[in-house]
Amino acid sequence: MNEIISTEAVNTLVSSGAFGYLGKKVLGATLENIGKDIANLYEKGRDKIVEKASKKIKNLDDGQQVNLRIARDVFYNGSFSDDEICAEYFGGILASSRSEDGKNDTSIFYLDIIKSLSSFELRLHYIIYQTLNKMLTNNYYGSNNINVGLESDVTSKVIYFNIVEIIEIIKLNDISALLHILVSKKLVNSFETNIYTLKSDPTKIIYYLKLTPTPIGIQLFAIANNKNFREFPNDGWLGFEGIELPNHYTTNIALWDNISK
User: Fold this and answer.
1) Half-sphere exposure (CA, 13 Å, Cβ side) for 216?
2) Is residue 72 a part of any domain in this protein?
3) What is the domain extent for residue 76?
4) Within a domain: residue 103?
5) Do the Cβ atoms of 149 and 91 come closer than 8 Å?
6) Where does residue 71 fall: left (phi above 0), alpha (psi -120 to 50 degrees), or beta otherwise?
7) Closest Cα partner for 88 from 110, 114, 107?
8) Pairing between strand 159-162 and 188-197?
9) Confidence at 8, pLDDT banded by 50, 70, 90
């Protein structure tokens, strides 16, 4: 595939107009390297996305091709990030758009969602749905009999997290701000943060996050894995290499007394 942004194009962009004049004054000789640096960043990000996509494809020699519309947006928007979680999501949607004739653009809706989310929001989405996948496949809810396409079925599943642990993983204190974004994108149905006092030791409290998932949240997660979302409740997905997950989660707030000992 031809590169979407050439070094020459970037050099022209950073040396033109007001930036060209002021850039020379402010940056001096450094300006000459900016275009090359941006192009190198793009190439590095592009290659990482392709690498992630290749790991999500069962047979690379199947003769299928990526949808051009999706490929353009994936590389144009995803290649300027070196964050692993971004590469995983963009790589997943690239892999999921492959078909025999290259006309499968059904993932474009989800690509728009990925493009609109920060790396922090993508990481939180990943944490939520990788954890939910573990909980369902390990019968945390007593049964994994759930219709993942039915809103009422999915939103009835409650997940509790230790919010301090989530903050440590995300490396951002204002988790609520991220969750409001996920709710606005219908990737989370509802959430609340509060304090739970351990009955086993009333001197100890846990700051918790309670939330409920959505079908669209599951579908986006499935696309990021290049999986069929219908398999989500029954198939334990391995998760993304190197992306940290929480150790503490439950379906019932009272169970914190057990998992916190």
Assistant:
1) 15
2) yes
3) 7-115
4) yes
5) no
6) alpha
7) 114
8) unpaired
9) low
